């Protein structure tokens, strides 16, 4: 498809398990972002990748959260030892380049529920 | 850190009415973006603003980048049922991560 693709769309898991969330950015977009949206809230920045540069991890809430981007395209967000407060919608976005005229385009997110 | 105050938090209007919402920031931005989010979907970009004072339209939507670079507004004219949803403002300054407002929930009363 032409847009940002995320999988799975929904994930239910038990507290303490690890989860992996996947993001396929728009083809040709060099910048990729992960955000988290709690129920009824705005979006909270997690991590940002731009080309081969070191990622901006300043938004990751704890060391249980990590992300990687292989080959400059697909990204995986991993949450280890999940906690109930990790329940949220995890949204991925991509943009053309790290410039001030590159609007971010979002996928539909992964709704994560921790039991 | 940066904070975005978005208002109003919610609006209840009748079909055909005009709508106005705004955002103010504690610091300046280089880019202001307006998104709409429907239930179960990701935010969809409505309007992007890149220059202080810029006024941009997209159909019935009009948005402006404030001269001070600390505020922006979004207007919707002649609202229709498909305008229902949550509207978010967002901004950034060079480092590309977006700071989002808390959203304006628009409801149309039959």
Description:
The complex is a heterodimer of chains A (about 120) and B (about 110). With about 120 residues, chain A is mostly beta strands. Chain A has strands at about 5, 10-15, 20-25, 30-35, 45-50, 65-70, 75-80, 90-95, 105, 110-115. In chain A, strands 2, 4, 5, 8, 9 and 10 form a six-stranded mixed beta sheet that branches. In chain A, strands 1-3-7-6 form a four-stranded antiparallel beta sheet, with no helix packed on it. In chain A, strand 4 and strand 5 (about 45-50) form a beta hairpin. By secondary structure, chain B is mostly beta strands. Chain B contains no helices and eleven strands. In chain B, the strands form two sheets. In chain B, strands 2, 4, 5, 9, 10 and 11 form a six-stranded mixed beta sheet that branches. Chain B has a five-stranded antiparallel beta sheet with strand order 1-3-8-7-6, with no helix packed on it. Chain B is globular, with a radius of gyration of 13 Å. Chain B starts with a strand and ends with a strand. The mean pLDDT of chain B is about 95.
DSSP strand tally of chain B? 11
Beta-strand fraction estimate of chain B = over 45%
How far is the N terminus from the C terminus of chain B? 41 Å
Determine the N-to-C terminus distance of chain A: 32 Å
CA-based shape of chain B = globular
Biggest β-sheet of chain A, characterized?
Answer: 6 strands, mixed
Q: Helix and strand string of chain A, N-terminal first?
A: EEEEEEEEEE
Bin the helical content of chain A.
under 10%
Q: Which protein chains make the most extensive interface, counting residues with beta carbons within 8 Å of the other chain's beta carbons?
A: A-B, 28 and 27 residues
Low-confidence stretches of chain A: none
Radius of gyration of chain B, in Å, reads: 13 Å
Structural class by sheet pairing and helices of chain B: mainly beta
Major β-sheet annotation of chain B: 6 strands, mixed
């Amino acid at each position: 498809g032409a847009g940002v693709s995320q999988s799975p769309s929904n994930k239910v898991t038990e507290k303490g398990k690890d989860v992996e969330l996947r993001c396929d950015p728009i083809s040709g977009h060099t910048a990729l972002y992960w955000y988290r949206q709690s129920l009824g809230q705005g979006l909270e920045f997690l991590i940002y990748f731009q080309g081969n540069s070191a990622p901006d991890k300043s938004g990751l809430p704890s060391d249980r959260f990590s992300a990687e981007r292989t080959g400059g395209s697909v990204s995986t967000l991993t949450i280890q030892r999940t906690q109930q407060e990790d329940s949220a919608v995890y949204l991925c976005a991509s943009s053309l380049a790290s410039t001030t005229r590159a609007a971010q385009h979002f996928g539909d997110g992964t709704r994560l529920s921790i039991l | 850190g940066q904070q975005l105050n978005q208002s109003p938090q919610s609006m209840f209007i009748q079909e055909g009415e005009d709508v106005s919402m705004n955002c103010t920031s504690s610091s300046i931005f280089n880019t202001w973006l307006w998104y709409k989010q429907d239930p179960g979907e990701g935010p969809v970009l409505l309007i992007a603003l890149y220059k202080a004072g810029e006024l941009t339209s997209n159909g019935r939507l009009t948005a402006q980048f404030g001269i001070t670079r600390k505020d922006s507004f979004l207007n919707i004219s002649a609202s229709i049922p498909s305008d229902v949803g949550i509207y978010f403002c967002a901004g950034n300054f060079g480092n590309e991560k977006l700071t989002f407002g808390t959203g304006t929930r628009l409801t149309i009363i039959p």
